[in-house]
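User: My collaborator sent over this chain with a note saying "see what the structure looks like." That's all I know about it. Can you take a look?
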Amino acid sequence: MPHSELMPIGVFARRSGLTPSALRFYADSGLLSPATVHPVTGYRSYGADQVAKATVLRQLRELDMPLPAVEAVLAAGPGEASRLVDEHVARVLREAETARRKAVVIKSSLTDVPSLPIAALKGPVFADAVEQVLTATVREPGMPVLAGLRIEVSEEAVTLTATDRYRLSTRTLVPAVPPLRTWAGTVDGEELRASAAVVRRCATVRMDSSPHGILLRVADREDQHCRLLGDGQFPDHRQMLAALREVTTRTTVSKALLLRSLEDHPGERIGLHVTDGTVALLAAGDGHAANRIPATGTGPPLRIWFELTTLYPAVSTALGPDVMLDLRGDDQPVTIRSADCGDFTTLAMPVKPEHTI
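Assistant: Without extra context I'll predict from the sequence alone. Here is the result:
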């Protein structure tokens, strides 16, 4: 290799993101040998064509991949290397989940507070409700509770609620047996989604409260623990629901037709012109109708605008073949629900008309 293409270990370390000591370690391990070693001084030099390999080596070690696995990845072709990386990540995730569950047991033993039964629900129904409501969550560093699902247990029902502050989804479930006590808490959404995949296959799931979260207990399976999100308060959704104005315009439209029109809509914002016989989809800028969908409704005509990312999920998660939109004005939350099943409801916030022009 020409001398001009070689670089000393310090320069190569900066290029690859590895420290000189790490490079010496990987050279001794046989993973990344220097291009040349000075016979007298022992100084090591590396070639520019080794930077890519060194970078991948560093990235694999950042995944906590052991040296034998790193060596196998570096020696493999692209397809096999990708498979080996996926296998390692899956193993790390399994180990992390095992550690989390063991930590729950340890923390419970430290508090000496037993878990308390709250309610029993049908497993498939609970799992479906979790998936539906969690579409309204969002990850926001300043408000971790927005990534959670609020569970409220009353004497008669279990209510699940989530919000990203632009949508609010809620579903009320009838327990398999009357709840044993009232309870409320905001539960980690990702852990609840993973647990829902387990309880979906079980006829009945029992919900217990623990000092740090809830336990979902099913027959012949390991308990599923979902931690409470204690940082910050969940938005006061009950006050918002109580403050909703009276519905002025109501329309019922085919869910499939509305979704298809939303999917074909070219812009990021979309307007709805609601009349007693149609729902017209409006294009931002000129406000002209891009598509018209047959509908039935009552009340005065109304134009209202939404972000597509707000409206589409609200419609797509509605139950049944037809969706009902309850409108209160162009600047008020719209209630979106099934036309014949009222236990799952989403509120969607519109945008101001002048923002669309």
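A starting point for your reply to your collaborator: The mean pLDDT is 89.
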